[in-house]
């Protein structure tokens, strides 16, 4: 069930932004964001319709694949576990990941980029993950669950990367 929750969360993620900005920094690293940085030349990538097709001046297929892969990699990137378990921090970090995703799908619903049905499925998937977040569960955890909470203690990780790694 948790794997299905993660897969659904990633499907929602790829379709949550009404507009994405792409730019290359001074080190040659390509970035994608829902907010354009100030004072930097950016390319705007917009959703064309309900099918979530991208419309841009450059090769649509290549850019869509790069963007999708980039967003998935960002969400699923493993930054390693914290050395010391901090249950409150782990729970806070997990809730923050879910809150950000919940807000993104809420905006997508409001702006007509996803249906009410997809929004409700996404919310239910996030609720399924939110159940795993409790300080008492963390404090009494062992084995893979303890590793899951150690992963969440690292603020760089998302709940999706930690759940994918330890709650299969």
From TrEMBL:
InterPro entries hit by this protein: DUF4124
Matches recorded under Pfam families: DUF4124
Highest taxon listed in the record's lineage: Bacteria
Domain DUF4124 residues, every copy: 10-46
Record-given protein name: DUF4124 domain-containing protein
